[in-house]
């Protein structure tokens, strides 16, 4: 027997799998921090398949909670308190992030560390364009805003805002290759020849990185919130960037490569599960991948000559990371139906990464 949300620790102890939320101790924690009182209602937010996000409602308050998924977890993954540290650090900057209201390292409260942030009003674009964006000019603006918001993140002075030590500013790409190669050995449930080919190619063609910046690590349309577009005086705009689980200090072009690699456009075949998540951007009005890359190059002043390498890196990392999710499915620690798609989805991502590698520099 399993249940994601229960009322008490006694109910949690009787389950075969640990719950994700325990209402009564969570309500007591929030009350003690002045973040609402009374009966607590919780519901899942979005379609994230890594760290878990809930909308929390109490008397007079709506909050958003982030916690790790159920164990077992890969080493160093799903560190939500590290995520909260970055959000608090960049709060005074131009980076478009939600405000963290409280953190909790005490796993006895709900069974895992967690943090609570403000609820931001807007839309997350996943499978369909909401009515407020039912115009080509608004969809183009969203794509342009997505690039501009990333440029803002990369412009943050991470030393000035207290993130010295958050990540090593040199050797980022080499560390990514070592870390994810090791993570593959931890996560893998089968041999994937295309992934092994990409691993070797990436290591043999590492580009020279420029000055280090904050790197989001999972920057895509599904991880931002869009508001506005109610009338001509209130155009569409990105108001918040979410899911900073993979953030660090490193090469900013890794974010651009990931954004481009997961950006669907007309004429694409649906390649792997990551492309499926971004299929909405195939609709008329959204910029093409090349336009996103060109806008970033113009706004940031960074050359995008090695963008194919960064795109291949992005899909390779996604395949490695998602294999860990597939491993959890096989172990019976999750029943998320998305993970069943990874049986074929991970190899497809690896094949797409190899296609980019073979085409690099042409």
TrEMBL record:
Protein name in the entry: Aminoglycoside phosphotransferase
Molecular function as annotated in GO: transferase activity
Taxonomic source organism: Conexibacter woesei (strain DSM 14684 / CCUG 47730 / CIP 108061 / JCM 11494 / NBRC 100937 / ID131577)
Keyword Transferase: yes
Listed Gene3D superfamilies: 3.90.1200.10, Phosphorylase Kinase, domain 1
Entry keyword rRNA-binding: no
Aminoglycoside phosphotransferase domain sequence ranges: 42-274
InterPro entries with a match to the protein in the record: ACAD10-like, ACAD10_11_N, Aminoglycoside_PTrfase, Kinase-like_dom_sf
Pfam family, one: APH
Top-rank taxon: Bacteria
Keyword terms of this UniProt record: Transferase
